[in-house]
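input
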Amino acid sequence: ITTDDLPCVVEPGENKGIVLKYLPLFVGNYTQEKIELRSVTTGVFPYSINLTATPGPPLPTVSATCVIGFRKSVRIQLENMSKLLATFLPISSHPDFQVKTPIVAEPGKLATVEVIYEPSSFNNSSFNLIIDSAEAGLFEIPLIGTCLKPSPVGPLLVEPNSSVKITLTNVFDTANTFCWFTDHPAFVVDTFTATVQPKQVLEIIVKMKLTEELSEIQPEWQNLPITGKLVVCIQDPALNHIKWSFYIKSFINKK
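output
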């Protein structure tokens, strides 16, 4: 409880009101709270106040959109309105959302909550994230995740005789065998399949191999780009319709 009206001067015969600000951090009933107003002239004025704190409404909805196989990070800010160093902990969970911890905020400062959305199916996800702090109270944030089908990525630039790393996550609850290929002989991979455990990351290294055939191209053509595509899919027939395409570009001579 705070007020901006004290100290104040009350003239003889004057009635003066004082506005109290009630800013509860926790839900509950607080009966017979005592407040005393003191004056060296008129003495002590005791008051008893009954206070009630009800749950607040959820914070504004936070939305995240992500292609399956990838992840999206969103940031939420919570205010520590207490006078103590506050630690915030998530007390609700959803398999498609992960909250990075620890979350700490100084008194009167904002805490940044980072939420990672990693969809595990093409179904959209909705979830009420509840974050609790013994110092700053309870916060409820509605989250909505929208999962998109894969769309082409790139072009990814790779230097001659160099490589580029492409990553995907097995977002499903079971191990899956991924397979991939490139459609241009200049872009090569050392392996073509890998079994990836649930929630683990697949890394594919694509190399640009400057072959003798490419080196013999006429000089006037050597500044034109070489383009290709890496296609990744899952061998499981139930998931084989999901395909990721990564366009790749390189040059024989890089100016």
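quick obs: The chain has one helix and 18 strands.
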